[in-house]
Amino acid sequence: MAIKKSELYSSLWASCDELRGGMDASQYKDYVLTMLFVKYISDKYAGDKYAPIFIPEGASFADMVALVGKDTIGDDINKKILNPLKEENKLSDFPDFNDPSKLGSGKEMVDTLSKLILIFNKPELDFSKNKAEGDDILGDAYEFLMRHFATESGKSKGQFYTPAEVSKVLAKIIGINDANSTAQTTAYDPTCGSGSLLLKVADEAEKEISLYGQEKETATAGLARMNMILHNKPSGTIWADNTLAKPRWEEDGKLKTFDYCVANPPFSLKNWGNGVDAQNDIYRRFQDFGTPPDKNGDYAFLLHIIKSLKSTGKGAIILPHGVLFRGNAESEIRKNIIKKGLIKGIIGLPANLFYGTGIPACIIVIDKENAHTRKGIFMVDAGKGFAKDGNKNRLRDQDIHKIVDVFNNQIPVPKYSRMVPIAEIADPKNDYNLNIPRYIDSQETEDIQDILAHLKGGIPNADIVKLNTYWKVYPTLKNALFKPITNSIYSELAVEASQLKNTIFTHPEFLSFTNDLKTVFENWKTRTTIQLKNLEAGCRPKEVIHTTAEALLHTYDNRALIDQYDVYQHLMTYWSETMQDDIYVLATDGWKAGNEVNRLAKESKNSKKETVRKDVEGLDGLEGRLIPPHLLIAHYFAKEQNAIDDLNAKKEAGQATKTELEEEHGAEGGLFGNLDKINKAEVTKLLKEKKIEKAPKEELAVCETYLKLLEQDSKINADLKITLKALEKNVIAKYPTLTETEIKTLVVEHKWMQVLDVAITTEMERVSQGLTQRITELANRYANPMPQLKSVVELLEEKVNAHLAKMGLVWN
User: Fold this and answer.
1) pLDDT digit string (tens) for 10-26?
2) Which member of 37, 242, 280, 622 has the greatest number of CB atoms within 10 A?
3) Superfamily grouping for domain 1-153
4) How many angstroms separate the CA atoms of 454 and 459, rounded?
5) Which pTM does this prediction carry?
């Protein structure tokens, strides 16, 4: 049985992290990712004489497994496995597997390396059988591990990895796609890190293009080379050296130029000029623009990219926000770049996205092809769209999609995006300052209180007008909710405040709009259900979710009130949590996987989490590979489940009564007050004593009732055990008998679509409730004007003074 994609990732990370010991994550990653690399190429290419990677005899992962437990394991890995792989394939240096300072010495090294090898030798981690066509599961696993290592590495050492979400944005906004790409198309990253940006660009091209990367850190360049291979891009060329001082890619003494360039260079690099004669730069990168300051390399990298682009080239670079507004030499460079029309757009990103820094960054998009006709720069303020992810922020799928849609289609969105004319940027009041808040006011509108309304009463018409987004959809609803106050700029509620929600939710226009949204979703659900039921083994999961999600997104095109990107995110969240694993299972084994059920293994108490996995749904840890047991039970064993529910209800009622008796009689002075513990033995003993004492019948009844409740609880537990065991047996027997049609119905209609139906219905309700909440807020805010409050205070004052007078007191 192939392992699920999410289980593959988490098991790799948990196992590897457990072996890390005291080694820094930025160093340990090299060992884990090398092991992943050797395992992958062995599974995929061993014995294939036409493979892009040649595996010498004796240098496969199987040969590495043979070294487990040997005293010379570290030295043997270096000499017998890694060195031959490196020499035959012209790879970068691998980490030293015989380094006692990192891996320990003697038995400690033998144990650590042996366990690490065995992690990747598990039968369920046969990578060759876990790759759906067109979906690089192992490449994605590499990205997963890189993200975790970057998170663990801290600010100073996490710069080898650009978050995949940001890489995806860059790749999608530079304009590369299947239609404009050929085998001759070139893409370049001068600070490629582990290569994720380049790979995302290749994904957008959807065909084999030429990839070029340069990375200063040798070890990181090695990771990039491995990453290329793991993502089926073995022709990608990575060079290890300083890009600014010693650029690798030249043609006739000039910098080689490329169709596309992307980069996430180290922010504000202080020593960028080491080895660079900026004033006499042989590549003329700074000519016509200006020389970047010695202690800040941001513009050095930007100008390198500009010089490395063809006359029709497109590029994008991630830089700190400071490049948009800093003065002195950088101000002059920025002005010259703008005057030449090279900047197509700027996208402001949220803070704390990157692993090397917490400061906010921006994406500067370069377009040489249209520079001479450029009249404006398109700006996007995307700083508020993100989700918290541990101690970092992360772009959600909806944030990525919105940024890309808005930027590529140049869509002006209030408080989010606009085309800023070059004339406005060049105006003396702005003086070529590109700071986004100068041009896009993304601040939330202040909710201003109306003093006169507080004094005289009434809801300001200005606040009602601000709800025009709703009134365009419900044009007559406003008159049903408000009535104007004569000769005034204020209105009052036309219904009781308590009837607001009912008035809105039963209004014909509201019902019509809600039903229309439901119909839209039902139509999408009907079409998508048919498509998903037609999936077969060999389907491409990433294509499936792309097609499905895009159809849902565009179902809500131009729909008032509801945000289509919020709807889209519900599907993408469910994809990430559940549906992705299911589709990968289908891609591997087809619908027959719905006949499979497992008993989950309990986690060891000695594991890092020190927890034992609880029983799933009361059936001793049963897990259906595609169909969860509760779904099977709901459709085929509802009677048995109802019986279990009844027993549980009786159990809970009995326990509640028992708790009441303990609380009522367990206090000091109570019937159970002197007992060491309130349990069967103690209460039985007490009952005998009370009978001997001939205590009141009420006391005897309490004891007898308590004991009966305990007896009842024991009997219910016994009945539950028997009933659950019988249900479990029936459930296990049912799975293999399910037909393909039944499996499709359960999975598509009752698992996937049911969850999405609830999520999107909730989204529609949230939008609808927004109007009710705002009107209620306004009504409550101005419900008690000052004269009314004054009258209430005066009345209360009179009552207090009257009470004081009766007591013989006078309040002056």
Assistant:
1) 777 776 776 677 677 66
2) 37
3) N6 adenine-specific DNA methyltransferase, N-terminal domain (1.20.1260.30)
4) 9
5) 0.85
